[in-house]
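Q: A reviewer asked whether we had any structural model of the full assembly, not just the individual parts. We don't, so I'm hoping you can provide one. Inputs are below.
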Amino acid sequence: MSRAKISLLLTALLMALVVVACGNESGEATPEPSASPEASEMPGQSDTDLESGGLVIYSGRSESLVGPIIERFEEETGIDVKVRYGGTAEMAATILEEGDRSPADIFYAQDPSGLGAVAVQGLFEELPADILERVDPRFRADDGSWVGITGRARVVVYNTDRLSPEDLPSDLWGFTDPQWKGRIGWAPTNGSFQAMVTAMRAIWGEERTREWLEGILANEPTVYENNTSIVAGVGAGEVDVGFVNHYYLYRFLAEQGESFPARNSFLPGGGPGSIVLVSGVGILKNAEHRDTAEQFVRFLLSEEAQTYFAEKTFEYPMNPAVKPYGDLPPLDSLNVPNVDLSNLTDLQGTIELLREVGALP
Amino acid sequence: MAHSSNPRLQRRTRGGRVHRPPPLRVSTALMLWVPSLTASLLVLLPLTYLALRVFSGGFAAWRLVFRPSTLEVIWNSGLLAAAVTVCSALIALPLAWLTVRTDLPGRRTWTVLVSLPLVIPSYVGAYLFIAALGPRGMVQQWLESTIGITRLPTIYGFPGALIVLTLMTYPYMYLSIRAALQGLDPSLEEAARSLGHTGWATFRRVTLPQLQPALAAGGLLVALYTLRDFGAVSLMRYNTFTRVIYVQYKSSFDRTSAAALALVLVVLTLVLLVIEARIRGRARYHRAAVGAARRAKVVRLGRWRWPALAFCASIVLLALVLPAAVLLYWLVRGWLAGEEFVSLWGPLRNSLSVSAIAALVTTAFALPIAFVEVRWPSHLSRFVERATYIGYALPGIVIALALVFFGVRFARPIYQTIWLLILAYVVLFLPQAVGAIRSSLLQVNPAVEEAARSLGRKPWEVLVYITLPLVRPGLVAAFGLVFLTTMKELPATLILGPFDFKTLATVVWGAVSEAFFARAAAPALLIILASSLPMAFFVVREETHE
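A: Here is a predicted structure for the entire assembly that you could use as a starting point for your response.
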């Protein structure tokens, strides 16, 4: 008997779920009062929505970072924005496969190399001058195909239980010293790290970059998957220092409190270890909603959106009118080497070098 | 008797007469072959895509394949796949036997619990294991405060990858062995016992050989999953072949070399398929006698139930409780730090409905494929069955990009709708369903179906009233496997799903990838909970039927 009851109960539950699941499929009928704006609709209707105007974004930046500001744009303009979230590489590859058939109006990428991959295929339209002028030429494409929205500084994150800022060398070369053996964390598969190595090749040249990589490898660095796991590893004391982007630390501090035992060091010596990378956007040539797309890019560079990024994602605003978060040193004060981000798209060379020295599989 | 590895396409019955399958009627043939061939065309799309990519790239595409270090990563991949498969079998076989054949207390609960690790995405699983068991993880923190251990031995590299992948994939073998055990004819074992075999000898010489198709099918799924896994191996820092492919996509946006590398993965898969075909042979696994199968006698564990319970508990503890506990810890920590939580109702609904539809459609495609292959074996039917594994062996991103390529050109009306996504799931997960149904179908004596036919039943009536009820354990396993793996699927969902289509897995990914652990915890826990519901439903239903 009890079995039958359990069975009945579970059937009822499952049915309820399925009914609820299908309930919305017919679409227009019943908007639920309590549903959060993010609650997604059942599909099958997206096709008609695509034609009904609006804006289509392929975002290589995750929803937790850019979702709120896109929502704000929708609220302010009443424009219906469709977003596809994924990794920057996956979204870039998708656009490349779709070619000029892509339904996307905008590609919003986490790093310059993703934008570069699409730009090289000539899939971006040149942005209007008034947009380009808002951003320092260092942080946008030479040909005007994409523009930076936020900046991420390369820093060294260190464990505060083991080290104080004075113990750190003034630039990345210092870490090839044997005293750092077994104490370094890095992420050779990570896009930002690879962009830094590309900058090294541009600034130092091939040979010196190889020397540095071999020097670090001789110190047997611990390999991490990405910036997040490096910061976690430094915080947990698995390693003492790690090469990362500046803003991941602040997320840990926000979630785990100020006692989280890791801090950033902006290396005073400058060089490729101090480059600033950007996230950025480009408008696709075949964009169906070109005007809206331009409106959206202008919005992203507006003070409102830039303040959001500074305060919530802890990145550097590209709009000079907006101050960076908390006690972050201002962008101008960083010893940023003069390297053109458009030149950082020669990734294959970097990958080959990393493979040759044995840092990549 | 189940051991004759006669590779002949025709079966021998007891008397030694050649047993020919009855000729196929045109209507039946259409009913079976149309869906089978459609499915195999679908499955061959990714292969076509890879070939197009490689050929458009010329010889340069192969440069990466012919590096000396390629051999090393292939060896790494093969070693890991073999080790994970063996370890999974060692866990799954006893679990399946205990939960099907014995009076283990709480069998049904254990059945659900030990199947659930399947729904934990491997990259999340790896994160959780590192957080718990890493050199400076939670367990170490606890040990430091109690007995002063400052660092645990590292779990990174081969051991970590082996542990995580074993714990996340053994349910594949568990579910298929379980289905096979349920359909096993006890009379053989009883005969062996009556001829003086001990319990162990009976198991080794009679039961185990009959489980071969299930072991091979489950093992193949485990091995292929390991081959194509990216999340766990990269977090555990173990260089496998799939990592090389991903580096090519992620870092240099180079789709041509990546395609060439992926083709190597296809070749590796073909090797595994040949091995599996050798193991499974062409023996007969169904009951010899006519008449209804009886339920096997329940083995009384007696005193042995304590070690048995301890075994089940330790697996559940490691594979399910530990990850869930870390998730809970993240959730509470985030909650205390004032993290806001958003409604997960939409993603939950999407996850459940899309997984249920994918499981139904995939099972529907799998049934005719398995049926044709078992009942009317031919080179074509075997090719169709084998071909289904190709999609399963490729990394999700390859399948997704292949469907982008074809979808945007030739299937624009369903591009970026749920329907193309469902097709992607079919390509990805079809072999799970085919394998499960096939092993069940092998246990059904065709004589039963023929009897029904000779009594005047139409072919579809035989299928609906005779065959389907008899292969129910296989259908349930097929549905369950596809459902559970769809719950956690990521790359295809991200790339091919409709706009703003969120599932629990994509929400977890969005949060973990940006280090918002507290935000990832709730949806990840919800994946586990929501998956346990249909699992519990099927297990309970099954038992009430008996």
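A: Points you may want to mention in the reply: Strands of chain B lie at 11-12, 18-19. Chain B touches chain A through 81 residues (CB under 8 Å).
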